[in-house]
Amino acid sequence: MLKNSALPMHLDLDSVRTQLKPFYSGTGRPSVDPDLMMRMLIIGYCMGIRSEQRLCEEVHLNLAYRWFCRLGLDGRVPDHSSFSKNRHGRFRQSDILRHLFETVAERCLAQDWSEPKGWPSMPA
Prior knowledge:
7 helices; about 0% strand; globular
């Protein structure tokens, strides 16, 4: 389970909206918030949830996941089909996931989180 840690403090997704803006239309129904999409994807990757339908269900039910996604108790979790269309459409056309990974890796290295205490060192 995701615990109350320093992760949300170091996870800055403000640039995500700016980078994905060209992939969103200014007309029509409101789309899934890119910040929410990224947070849900992080939960899915970290917790080994491969199914988008199951991920949406887990975020809907799990209070820790709702907190991490900044949904509160009454926030709306996107429908799994909307989530999937956004993930496989907008995100695939952009380079945002690679950029997010590189940013998080750089921050982990800067905070000296690359080798947690008690973990065995990897051979060079």
